[in-house]
Amino acid sequence: MPTQTRQIEITNTATQTASEISDSTVVESSGQSSIQISKTGPAYGRVGDILTYTYVITNTSSLNSPNLVLKGVVDIINNVVTDLTIKAINAGAFILGPGASVTFQSSHLVVESDPNPLVSTVVAAYNPLGYSNEISAYDVNLVTIVNPNFTVEKICETEKIVAGGTATFRINIANKGNAPLNVAALDQGMVYTSSGLAPGATFTFTVQMPIPIEEYVGGVTNYVFVVAALPEMYGINDLYFGVASATCSILNWGGTRAFWMSDDGHAILDANGDGRVDNPVIIGSGIREILVKRIILSDTILAGNYCTHVLDNSCGDNLGNNLPANTLGRLMAETLALAYNIKFIPFYSGQLAGALGCSNLLLQIGLPINSTVNDVLALANILIGDTGTCGSATQGRVNSIINLIRCLNGERF
After folding, report:
1. Would you state the pLDDT for residue 23?
2. Which residues pair with 30 in a beta bridge?
């Protein structure tokens, strides 16, 4: 075995940094006798991995030199000495003639306390047959410990969405490890990728999700599925998975008596519960222009009984010959709901009717195909206020605009 001085030298070698250690094999010789040992293993490893090292001992003595007799082989990993002499002997390393070599292996479990890089030193010692002098050699191996790790989060960026609208989600994938990652994310049937995402960097992208017209309550939840891997150079083929979700709230549309007379409907109109509409709206025009500022009034109109229970006979006196009272009541009820939707639902004002799936009903009432919900509301208010005997508020036209507003309000026939 090496002398005490040699042991101290080896220990010091094991504690040097990667930049201070040469990867070349060190050989000592006595006369014409010499030996060489090499240690190879994976370049990268992770905590929990079992690293397999391969050792090759070669008698590099001149051909006329005596055989070499093994004295011992030790491996020093993280200042822990492991005796590999038996492994070497079992591989045929006990007596080596000039030019002969043997190969054997050992393994090491990477633990949290291992340094990074993981530096190890193997030492082999021999005696020339019939001589007492010692021939020794050592080799140094370095393994970089990698920690693949990432987080994924998904955020709803649309405060409130409406059925028929679009929800926008933002996805952030952050590399929390110490090695680059190749990332692929699946969202809404589309794959988003980032190659070589550096440690500490974040891959961000947004996706949009159409909300079906039929979606009325609660919210819409969307998931993103992420798979990551180390680049090929690391020689580690494992995949790492992550998933995240976010929910965008859907604001209910008004349009039916059941909604507006419900607690949910009143909560939107009357947040403090005092019976007054917090943000009154106006419907109609002319003598039928009405400021709706009380819950009970909105319920009455939406029940379709406004003409009977509020204006009584004066309502009938103001009707055109072609527009019955019950038709006017239905028009006022749907218009009231549309006015609330435009006022209270974010992003609803200015929406194209076509974007809400109602473009086929626009031409029936004489509006262009690019009309917005605001254009429809303006026409409805004009028709409500039309009192002329030969005016435009005919039964057929009013029924058509009622159907259009029901479509815009998310109702189905």
Report:
1. 42
2. 33
**What is the per-residue pLDDT for 224?**
97
pLDDT per residue as tens digits for the range 70-91: 999 999 998 999 999 999 999 9
CA pair distance 331, 168, nearest whole angstrom: 34
Average pLDDT over residues 132-140: 95
Task: Give the helix ranges, DSSP H, for 62-189.
Answer: 85-90
Instruction: Please confirm whether the linkage preceding 148 is cis (ω < 30° from 0).
Output: no
pLDDT over 50 (residue 309): no
Tell me which residue of 205, 244, 208 sits closest to 223, measured CA to CA.
Answer: 244
171 DSSP assignment? E
Query: 225: pLDDT confidence band, cut at 50, 70 and 90?
Result: very high
Nearest to 358, CA basis, from 410, 411, 404: 404
Among candidates 293, 211, 315, 301, which has minimal Cα distance to 256? Answer: 301
187 in the Ramachandran plot: left (φ > 0), alpha (ψ -120 to 50) or beta? beta
Measure Cα distances from 393 to 56, 361, 384 in Å: 99, 17, 8
